[in-house]
Design a protein that fits this description.
128 residues; mainly alpha
Length: 128
């Protein structure tokens, strides 16, 4: 159930963690990750979707963006990285490359930013 108290508790938790200047991956893991406070407090897809519409969620996203600007990923010892391979048409790859160039960033950073955005269930095709 989405309540103002739960939203405020999540925001306070995020603000406390943010004040400690963690690397962005730690902040993400502890707030928005699969075991983070957001998933603990809003365990269903419906309550999570509702939370993603709140000011508290937007503020957490802003904190995450600030931390991503501050530095790279932590060492592999603290947060191992994983590589995924995504098959996409050449035209989409070129569009991503162009967008990354326009934003003066790498394709990797652009794609991470896109992957952390809210997804409308109606835009995700299901497997047959």
């Amino acid at each position: 159930m989405l309540t103002a108290e739960r939203c405020e508790e999540v925001k306070r938790h995020a603000e406390t963690l943010f004040s400690q200047s963690p690397d962005w991956a730690t902040f993400y893991r502890e707030t928005l990750g699969s075991q983070g406070i957001v998933r603990q407090m809003f365990a269903t897809r419906e309550t999570l979707a509702e939370f993603e519409k709140t000011d508290a969620y937007q503020q957490i996203q802003q904190m995450l963006t600030q931390l991503r600007k501050a530095g790279p990923l932590p060492s592999e010892e603290f947060e191992p990285t994983r590589v995924i391979t995504v098959r996409l048409p050449k035209s989409l790859h070129e569009a991503l490359r162009d967008e990354a160039h326009e934003h003066r960033t790498s394709m990797n950073k652009l794609c991470i930013s896109k992957l952390m955005q809210i997804i409308d269930n109606g835009r995700v095709p299901t497997e047959p």
